[in-house]
Write a structure and sequence with these properties.
The structure holds 2 protein chains of 2 kinds. By secondary structure, chain A is of the alpha+beta class. In chain A, strand 6 and strand 7 form a beta hairpin. Chain B folds into 2 domains: 82 residues, Rna Polymerase Sigma Factor, Chain: A; 73 residues, Winged helix-like DNA-binding domain superfamily/Winged helix DNA-binding domain (Arc Repressor Mutant, subunit A). The chains are: A alpha+beta, B mainly alpha. Chains A and B meet through helix 1 and helix 2 of A and helix 1, helix 2, helix 6, helix 7 and helix 9 of B. Chain B: Belongs to the sigma-70 factor family. ECF subfamily.
């Protein structure tokens, strides 16, 4: 190694010696971005899981029947599926255990320091699970092929989304911190966003509301309090029928 | 008991400065360095369970940084956009020769991305030729050739550097 070779190393070290990134900011930003990467992975897993879930959910619905719920869109017929909201007040009997053997209050161990808790279970096999780690949940979903598991992001400011879904074969994950959820069924995948009412007028214009290249229009729901919902297609195969069906199956808490 | 996020935060605080400095030398640009460092840690976080169980998580992060840098064009097309980062947070030490520093980054910028990676690993991190070869997936001969070629290109640009560094 000659003289120049030796000094280039020193010069490089001197060059960056006074560079001090904001590490707290780096932690926060990379955690957020890393979480989004995980969610995209999870969405892929969810789609496959939803396919398996859909058939069972339909059969279970036919067997168990259900109550009524409030629809987010008055123009859409009231769904016949019970919702998570309805669980605490309606008289619909709960089934001791569903096809996967899960019961309310049961804790699912995802490994490490992460667990999920079965919050609500319905005759239609709708189950809410709270977990801190969507990656582990996606791994775990495969163990419960008969259960539409809805993930609630407890890291968000409120801990739960403002809407519930009566999951006729829909698989939803809620990301409260991002004020949205990703729902899928069959070949359809959509994002559900709850937005401030002040933005509602802007979404009246389909040119702004619709996703470029999508064959289905964005659903823009009516204002509810200080919020409104939009449902936008994520997957190419998402049909207008699927979006409208989900709009009818969502209910405000 | 520490959660995964706590462990990850500790890891970033322990290694973030080193990786960020490497990113700055690789990219030659403060904004790109921020982006590259964040993109690297985002990938590490997404696989944190696996990474934290590895013998050397820092080596994994460094390899991720290099791969991300070398596939930079692909990164720029990626929809995962680093957010909310500025360069205003760096703290400049008093008495730093800014003219020399700019010259050094400008000189590195004339090198190809792979040659820059070789220089940074070999002369900034002081890693052996064999280690650099493993990190970059090339032979030791290729590393020596690239290092020699890179220094030949840098020498006329940075010749006064050795005098300043010695003084």
């Amino acid at each position: 190694m000659n003289d120049f070779d030796a000094h280039i190393g020193t010069a490089l070290r001197d060059r960056v010696a006074d560079v001090h990134p904001d590490l707290d900011r780096l932690v926060a930003a990379s955690t957020r971005a890393g979480t989004r990467i995980r969610r995209r992975r999870t969405a892929g897993v969810s789609l496959a899981s939803a396919l398996a879930v859909a058939a069972v959910a339909v059969v279970a619905t036919q067997i168990a029947g259900g109550g009524q719920t409030r629809s987010v869109d008055p123009s859409v017929p009231i769904a016949s599926e019970p919702t998570a909201t309805a669980v605490s007040t309606a008289a619909t009997p709960e089934v001791p255990r569903n096809a996967d053997g899960l019961a309310v209050g049961e804790t699912i161990d995802f490994g490490g320091d992460d667990t999920g808790t079965v919050v609500v279970r319905r005759a239609t096999s709708v189950i809410l699970v709270r977990s801190m780690d969507s990656e582990r949940l996606s791994d775990d979903v495969a163990r419960y092929p008969h259960t539409p598991i809805v993930w609630e992001d407890t890291t968000g400011p409120t801990g739960q989304p403002p809407v519930t879904v009566s999951a006729k074969g829909w698989f939803c994950q809620w990301f409260v911190a991002d004020e949205k959820g990703i729902c899928s069924t069959g070949g359809a995948m959509v994002t559900v966003n709850w937005r401030p009412a002040s933005e509602h007028a802007g979404f009246a214009d389909p040119a702004r509301a619709d996703v470029p290249g999508a064959k289905a229009h964005t659903y823009v729901g009516p204002v509810h309090g200080d919020l409104f919902l939009t449902i936008q297609p994520m997957a190419i195969g998402t049909s207008q029928q699927a979006i409208d069906a989900l709009a009818g199956a969502l209910a405000w808490r | 008991m520490k959660t995964n996020q706590d462990e990850f935060a500790d890891f970033v605080r322990a290694t973030g400065t080193q990786l960020h400095r490497a990113a700055l030398l690789l990219t030659g640009d403060h904004h790109l360095a921020e982006d590259l460092t964040q993109a690297t840690y985002a990938k590490v976080f997404a696989s944190w369970r696996r990474v934290s169980a590895a013998d050397n998580p820092l080596a994994y992060a460094r390899t991720t940084l290099l791969n991300t840098f070398l596939s930079h064009r692909r990164l720029r097309r990626n929809s995962e956009k680093p957010v909310d980062l500025t360069v205003g947070r760096e703290i400049a030490a008093p008495g730093v020769d800014h003219e020399t520093r700019l010259d050094l980054l400008a000189a590195l910028a004339v090198l190809s991305a792979t040659d820059r990676a070789v220089v940074v690993l070999r002369y900034w991190e002081d890693r052996s030729t064999a280690d650099v070869a493993i990190d970059l997936g090339m032979t030791e001969t290729a590393v020596r050739t690239r290092a020699r070629r890179a220094l030949q290109r840098l020498r006329p640009l940075l010749d006064p550097l050795s005098d300043r560094t010695r003084s």
